[in-house]
Amino acid sequence: MKFFIAIIDGTVVLKNVSFANSFFKRLIGLLFRKDLNKDDGLLIYPCNQIHTFGMKFCIDAVFLSPTFEVMHIEHNIPRGQISKYVKGASQVLELKGGIAEDKGILVGQTIIFTR
User: Fold this and answer.
1) Degrees (nearest 5) of the Cα angle 38, 35, 79?
2) For residue 110, what is the DSSP state?
3) Which of 2, 3, 24, 29 is most buried, by CB atoms within 10 Å?
């Protein structure tokens, strides 16, 4: 299922976001993808820490509260790394490396998911 993502001011920042909300989907994540498009993302939940072992590209990780407020952002996480554990985060939005900054995603903003 695909969703749009909009920051609170209504600006669409991603057009194709998949949800990983089962054990199997969270386990696979982005492992078999060669790259991500600038308009693609993966929302993993429940989740408060990620890794990039086995990945083929760098990613940005946007950690969200249960109310979809941006709590923490890790930019350009290289392959083979473990992110910071973010206490209170309930989900992580994974994006192509550099996109969070390019799209102006900031801590404190609320992300709205809609079709």
Assistant:
1) 110
2) B
3) 29
pTM equals 0.93
Total domains in the fold of the chain: 1
Q: Sheet holding 70-77: strands in order across?
A: 70-77, 59-64, 91-96, 40-44, 12-20, 3-7, 111-114
- The Cα–Cα gap between 111 and 30 comes to 21
**Residue 71 host element (H or E):** strand 70-77
Domain that holds residue 14: 3-114
pLDDT digit string, tens, across residues 36-76: 999 999 999 999 999 999 999 999 999 999 999 999 999 99
User: Alpha-carbon distance 53 to 99, whole Å?
Assistant: 20
We report the CATH number of the domain holding residue 82 as 2.60.120.1140
User: Tokens in use for 80?
Assistant: 């083979």
